[in-house]
Amino acid sequence: MPDLTDRNHNPASILARYGTLLLCAVWLLAGSVGHDPWKTDDALHLGVAFGMAGGDWLVPRIAGDPWLTTPPLYHWVAALCGKLLGWLLPWHDAARLGSVLFGAAFLTILSRVAGLLLGASAAVAAPLLAIGTVGLLVPLHDAQPAIAAITGFAVALWGLALWRTQPLRGGLIFGAGIGVGFLAAGIDSVVIELATGLLLMLHPDWRTRRSWLAGLAAAAAALLLMLPWPLLLWQQSPALFDIWWTAEEASLTLRPGFSRDHLELLAWAAWPSWPLALWALWLERRHLLEGQTALPLAATLVALLAFFTDAPRPTALMPALLPLILLAATSAGRLRRGAANAFDWFGMMTFTLVAALIWLGGISMLTGEPARVAKNFTKPAPGFIAEASPLIIVLAIAVSVAWIAVMLRTPRSPWRAAARWSVGLTTVWVLLMLLMLPWIDYGKSYRSVSANFRQILGSHSGCIARRGLGLAQRASLDYFDGIRTVGASRAKDCRYLIMQTAPGTEKALPGWTLVRETSRPGDKGERLRLYRRAE
Question: What is the pLDDT of residues 299-324, one digit of tens each?
Fold first, then answer.
């Protein structure tokens, strides 16, 4: 890994910038393609995008039924990627490149904000810390609107960073961030961004003579992006607009917060950004009100408050991770020698051990030895047959050798511990995707479930009722084999019924005959049953 700074603390070198760019590209692409839609969010949102690509670009739908939980920005981009690149990749892989685009935009804008606030070295450190933050790893490789929402928040912070010196431009960009956030995640995102902006208006750096002009520009840009979709929805279907608006109002209801689950999620998902952010606050304790610290601090406080008043979900924490990373970028190169060495050794030992375990698991699946280890992989994926092309093995070896070289050859630098942590996490993720992706895909995809049902249904084109069938399951059945189900109000004359239950809860259904029971391989918590109406 190239040195981010020299001993005179000069800005990051060209080699460091291009090395970081390459590492971020590898991190983004690994795991984004090469597998089916996975339960839950991945299958659900790819299902929505698949429905849009079929013709209705205004109303998000799952297997034909309206789904108005979030506005459709992410699904628009995913559907466009699927249509444009579906000839080159499986449709779901092409659509999931929408996540790669939003992820790349997020990292780029994060770097820009860090550079504006903290200087050229932080512009390189911030994206490195982002790809090293544990809580961003899985969500940014899924198909889901939270990726677009955090990108919108990054745009909003970019605008606020510019607001002090270029009010008009900053206001326009801030408003654009609000608009992107709204189209990605609805009013929840707008509240976080607006609250951050209003809190900063208490600071003299943002309360300038031209702030009113910046505010007008922000409002104009935000409304220009926010209004067209809900107005078109209201014009086309007032009933669907009411459903969407009711859901938005419900999402603003405050829930009891600050639970143990919230703290546990914050502790691991924000690692290592949160300890570095706390160290930054200590280092800057006499300068907390200066602009470069006030902005990420205000955004962190607002986003954490929103997180603690929501359910403890990784996606709910994502807005808080962005300003935490900005705070961490101010201190990652200023650790005391003992703390830096401890962090560095912890990262190297942890990722080396995990990489070795991944190799052990991959070899045991391919060869059956050691038998005890191979058995542990067979139990959760019965029937899985491991295969690996020579190219995959060569790439996995190359990644492992590169990690060893990074550990041995990275020059001393204030940033070395943070840089090697990010390289180590990327190494483990890439190895996991190279050696174990088929095994993971085997157990997380509904392809086999859908094929089992299609075998029984044949060319049946009539209605199929559903009972207890989840959104991800409905989306997967429709995507793989065109199996669409209808709710109880439209199911009176259906010949078939698909029911989702838990094992051990089987009950006879009067008037129905069970013809197929199936589940994802190794899934012990879910059963899908196909019934035919008794003659």
Answer: 999 999 999 998 899 999 999 999 99
